[in-house]
Structures are given as structure tokens and as C-alpha cells.
Automatic annotation (TrEMBL):
Keywords: Isoprene biosynthesis, Lyase, Metal-binding, Multifunctional enzyme, Nucleotidyltransferase, Transferase
Protein name: Multifunctional fusion protein
First-to-last residue of the parent protein present: 2 to 231 of 387
Complex and partners: Homotrimer.
Keyword Oxidoreductase listed: no
Site keyed Transition state stabilizer: positions: 15, 22
Pathway: Isoprenoid biosynthesis; isopentenyl diphosphate biosynthesis via DXP pathway; isopentenyl diphosphate from 1-deoxy-D-xylulose 5-phosphate: step 2/6; Isoprenoid biosynthesis; isopentenyl diphosphate biosynthesis via DXP pathway; isopentenyl diphosphate from 1-deoxy-D-xylulose 5-phosphate: step 4/6
Organism: Agrococcus terreus
Reactions listed under catalytic activity: 2-C-methyl-D-erythritol 4-phosphate + CTP + H(+) = 4-CDP-2-C-methyl-D-erythritol + diphosphate; 4-CDP-2-C-methyl-D-erythritol 2-phosphate = 2-C-methyl-D-erythritol 2,4-cyclic diphosphate + CMP
Cofactor stoichiometry and binding remark: Binds 1 divalent metal cation per subunit.
Length: 230
């Protein structure tokens, strides 16, 4: 297939506090990974699920339940390592989408928007949303109450990055090679492309593509997934 869709699901989920890797936490009767994969049914792409080492068999069963034909590979210690593992399994795909399993409710329309921007010739595409909170920098201290408050950053000039992000496959591979070990600190693939001096195109994100990170996020996702009651 011309497109590979890498779903990174190898995070530990410490902040979610469920005691299992995040993608394997259950919300409304199915794991986060299953919800994420269900949202991708019908996308014209070879799906590569990147999961914690040892969880491959579980992930294969989950993919089958979700109704997607996914290749499953083991991830690494950082998100970037996991993306690199996914890239290694992406075969000869001409373009690559990288998606956080934790953004399990990302709507199909968002995926199509990213693909359309690639079709229109972009080499790198990232969905973005305005920042709603007022953001202030701090002087790093381990304990929030001891942090020295810095300046407020003008939020009108800020955007939150989402996934799926879309790339020309050769460009993303080049970005990962160029970043080398430095990729470990990266939480955003488009940033690695930008570091090459290549253009990154923004498309409108979607609030439903929020990243399930904390217990409160899980609660929000469950409320959205719950069948509507009469
Ligand atoms: O930790 P964070 O929420 O930023 O992770 C974003 C996505 O990256 C999640 O879907 C998570 O499973 C994935 N991840 C990964 N491998 C890691 C760390 C995070 O696949 N080592």
C-alpha cells in the first residue's frame, strides 16, 4: 500500500494510573488501542501498531476485534523510538501517518484532512488547535509549589499539536536519521522535519483528538463513548 499508518501505543501510561500500559487500559468495555484502531477501519493504509514488548499477541487479538488488519511490532523506551520501530515496519510506503493510540477518539474526518493535505503536495502535515488556557513559563523546580513563576506567553501565538501527523515517507526517514540520538527528546515528529528546514503544513485539529493522558481524560473519553441514554 502507498500509505502506512503507524499507531504508537507503547507508552507506559504512568499518568493514567491504571497499572497497565495506557493503550491496554479499558474504557467503556474496550481497550484504548481497540478504540483507536476502530476509528481507522476503512482508511486506505497499511496499519502498523507499535506496542510494548511482550504485548504483541494481545495487540494482534485487539486488532482483530477492532476489524483491522494490522502489523504489530514492539516499541521502545521513548515515543520517538517507538515511531522509529514503526517506520522500520512501514515497508515501501510512499507516505506515512503517525498517530497516538492515546488519541483514541480522533475522528475519521481528521485523518482524511491530513491525507488530503498530503495529496495536495505537502511533505509534512500536522493538525493543530488553538490553546485555550493561559500559559506561563516557570523556572523548573521539581515541586510545583516551589516553582518561580515566569512570564505569561501570549496564547494567541500558540497552537497545540495533535496527531495523526502525515509525512512523505522519505522525508520522515531523513528527519529521524538526521536527529540521531537527539530524537529521544522529541514528542513531535513534525518538529524533526522542521529541524531539516523543511516546511510543515498545519491543518485544523479536532477536539475529539485529545490525548487520553490523565484519569480525568479517561473519564471524558468514557462519557463520549457511552451510549446515549434516553
Ligand atoms: O506519553 P504520551 O502520552 O505523550 O504518548 C503519546 C503516544 O506515544 C501514546 O499513544 C503512547 O502510547 C506512545 N508512546 C510509545 N512509546 C513510548 C512512549 C509513548 O509508543 N515509549
Amino acid at each position: 500500500t502507498a500509505t502506512a499508518l503507524i499507531v504508537v501505543a507503547a507508552g507506559s501510561g504512568t499518568r493514567l494510573g491504571r497499572g497497565v500500559p495506557k493503550a491496554f487500559a479499558t474504557l467503556a468495555g474496550a481497550t484504548i488501542l481497540e478504540h483507536a484502531l476502530r476509528g481507522l477501519v476503512g482508511v486506505d493504509a497499511r496499519i502498523v501498531a507499535v506496542v510494548p514488548a511482550g504485548a504483541e499477541a494481545d495487540a494482534r487479538a485487539i486488532a482483530e476485534r477492532a476489524g483491522v488488519d494490522a502489523a504489530v511490532v514492539a516499541g521502545g523506551a521513548t515515543r520517538a523510538d517507538s515511531v522509529a520501530a514503526g517506520l522500520a515496519a512501514a515497508g515501501d510506503a510512499r507516505r506515512v501517518l503517525v498517530h497516538d493510540a492515546a488519541r483514541a477518539l480522533a475522528p475519521r474526518a481528521l485523518v482524511e484532512r491530513v491525507l488530503a493535505a498530503l495529496d495536495a503536495g505537502a511533505g509534512a502535515v500536522v493538525p493543530v488547535l488553538p490553546v485555550v488556557d493561559t500559559i506561563r513559563s516557570v523556572d523548573g523546580a521539581a515541586d510545583a509549589s516551589a516553582e518561580a513563576l515566569g512570564a505569561i506567553v501570549d496564547r494567541s501565538g500558540l497552537r497545540a499539536m495533535q496527531t495523526p501527523q502525515g509525512f512523505d515517507a522519505a522525508l520522515l526517514r531523513r528527519a529521524y536519521e538526521a536527529a540521531g540520538e537527539g530524537r529521544a527528546a522529541s514528542t513531535d515528529d513534525a518538529q524533526l522535519v522542521q529541524a531539516l528546514g523543511e516546511a510543515v503544513v498545519a491543518v485544523p485539529g479536532d477536539e475529539l483528538a485529545f490525548k487520553i493522558t490523565t484519569a480525568a481524560d479517561a473519564g471524558r473519553a468514557e462519557a463520549l463513548l457511552a451510549p446515549t441514554r434516553a
